[in-house]
Amino acid sequence: MSPEQITRPILWNVGLPTKIAMYVLLAVSLAVFGYGLSRRIKVWRRGRQTSAPLNLSAACRRLLRHVFLQRRIARIPWAWSSHMLLFYGFIVLFIGTVCVALEDYGVFHFFYGTFYLTLSCLLDLFGLGFVVALAMAMARRAGVTQVRPSSTPVDAAILWLLMAIGISGFLIEGLRIAALRPDFEQVSFVGWALAGAWARAGFSPQAAVLPHFAFWWLHMLLVFGFIALVPYTKLLHFLIAPMHIARTPEHASGHFSPVSLEEVEETGRVGVGTMADFTQAELISFDACTQCRRCETACPAWNTAKPLSPMRVVLDLAAAGEHEGSLHDSVISAETLWSCTTCGACVRQCPVLINQLGAIVELRRHLVGEGHVLGSAQGALRSIAATGNPWGLPRADRAAWAAGLDVPTIDEMPNPEVLFWVGCAGSYDRRNQQVSRALAQIMQAAGVKFAILGRHEQCTGDPARRLGDDFTFLEAAQANVETINATGCRRIVTACAHCFNTLSNEYPDYGGHWQVEHHTKFIADLLAAGRLQFAPGAETGAVTFHDPCYLSRHNGGADAPRAVLGAVADKRLPIVEPEQHGPNGFCCGAGGGRMWMEEDIDKRVNFRRFAQLKATGAKTVAVGCPFCMTMLDDASKNDEAAGIAVKDVAELVAARLA
Prior knowledge:
Elements: H1 16-44, H2 56-68, H3 77-105, H4 113-141, H5 153-180, H6 189-200, H7 209-229, H8 237-247, H9 261-267, H10 280-286, H11 294-298, H12 300-303, H13 310-319, H14 334-338, H15 345-349, H16 356-369, H17 375-387, E1 418-421, H18 423-428, H19 430-445, E2 450-452, H20 462-467, H21 470-487, E3 491-494, H22 497-506, E4 515-518, H23 519-528, E5 543-545, H24 549-555, H25 559-569, H26 605-614, E6 620-623, H27 626-638, E7 645-648, H28 649-654
Parallel strand pairs: 1-2, 1-3, 3-4, 5-6, 6-7
Helix pairs in contact: 1-7, 2-8, 3-4, 4-5, 5-6, 5-7, 13-16, 22-24, 23-25, 26-27
């Protein structure tokens, strides 16, 4: 048999009238598809244009990581396995269809010999993987895995549609092979097996002709239906997600885009109030949502019965594409927006790089601009603007925590090795003042030449920016940058994860370029350099570490606190991890300005997190942020019977100093 005889007839058992009908139906399905896509494009064009250039090499790297390797989905092995089989099965089957079409149209003549045999084998292999992947997806929605994607009737129908397409394709192949029975078709192992089953059932080759024709039509109708449905269902993410990933840099979740005062004066717009206020890229991103529910499952607000679902926010905005007028209350409720702790778990989990957090904060900015802020949070914003701290306490008392410690101010020590940024909580809150004292003692023990700003320091503006009040934030940022730059200090250490994030990630937008270190990293370096000595200590119980969102998730700082605790342990303080830890840790509930908001006692995020930490069996909860200290210390007092102490990492180190 010559190589050109090793092939199969294109559209076997399909006459010219049927072929014409097929192309008519294809044209109809493409028209329906085109109409749906044009409606989405019309929605995208409503957004503001941006002039950010596309970095081609970075776009290719993102496509490799998040489309072809699907790195974020790989965090759930079952989901990654099914999604990879589905993704590559779809691609290979599409390539096979294109090859058949090119051969049929006479564009190329290559569909024979080794190429045909190889492609036939691959189509069966990846087609089988496609069907297996769909079965796995159905199993996930039935509860096989803990994190389940959305499972509406439409979602289930889409899976069954794809399953029917895959199975009918194999049946067509099997019946064609049963009718023609060429030996070389053994490479099509699924179709060959089905043809063998047909023969073993006692049916003649001729008897396969009519069923083949019927299943061929069924397959075509299902495929055309699939094409037509894409722009109207979650299937659209097949097209939009790669486009969005290619053109959208991975967002630094700890950095919020600054508000342009010139743009505000020119447009009168603050934040996002209507669909047209989003950028075109943001509107496109909403259509990229896969409805996998990873963001929702990770969200502390959703997990404590609050009305916020990051996925629902994205889907509601996508559904409101042609909505005219304000989005607030009619599309997204204020209560939903104020529920966000800005922990960034949604952004980290999203497999298609949607910035849910950015959308929520932009919507908050509009609310603040319109004067709609919850009462207690409004008081904190006013206090930051008036006195430089959320509690409205005197600036003259900012260094009172250091009484008796001989801690120099910048006026007394103009050229320190390190500027100790104390922060509002470390300066005024009695519990967190103990952390400031502990860190000062550590630096003194290590011989570090340091100073504090004292009355010259004020709030970084983090609560204001997270609440959506960028004007209050801007005033604080400009004042602090001017103050710090005037000192000449280039190295800053702080025990506040929120101050650390703001100083290092957001102040560069305003001229603040310094080496900013979280105190756990600073202490870890002191220990590594041998600048701290520990005295022998008594046997202690186990300790668990609660990761601050603005350290471990937003800034990748999960290792340093564990290195410090490991050094403190000295075989006396075993470290146990809660189920959710590191970058995947569960929020304490204080971020996003919620530190200053009232909350129902049965919906408190800090109580939920404390229960997780308690489940480790540890008698000490170590923290690395004053917000976390406040929230978890409050939770520990609500559960005094547990006998769990909440300590900052610096306090545990200071207690061991020689």
